[in-house]
């Protein structure tokens, strides 16, 4: 194996640093997407609960009319 110069080591360090930053960016984007999906899921769940409450109310009204 040939000796590495300081410049070679600096270049490798720079490449590693860029790879780390790129990986960090992907992780942050994935976390943001996951958080948004969680919020979307919570909103859907809330909407479904509201729909179920309205259905229950209408069901009670229909039973009252019988």
How would you describe the overall organization of this protein?
The chain contains 1 helix and no strands. The protein has 66 residues and is mostly helical. It is rod-shaped and about 90 Å long. It is 91% helix and 0% strand. The model has no long low-confidence stretch (mean pLDDT 93). The protein has one helix at residues 6-65. Residues 6-61 form a coiled coil. Keywords: Coiled coil.
Structural class: mainly alpha
Spatial gap, N to C terminus: 91 Å
Tally the helices.
1
Largest sheet: none
Share of helical residues: over 70%
The fraction of residues in strands falls at: under 5%
Q: Find the count of extended strands (DSSP E, 2+ residues).
A: 0
Order of helices and strands: H
Q: Which regions have little confidence, pLDDT < 50, spanning 5+ residues?
A: none
Shape: rod-shaped
Rg value: 28 Å
Averaged pLDDT, please?
A: 93
Short description:
With 66 residues, this protein is mostly helical. It has one helix and no strands.
Note the topology:
Elements: H1 6-65
Question: What brief labels describe this structure?
Answer:
single chain, 66 residues, mainly alpha, 91% helix, rod-shaped
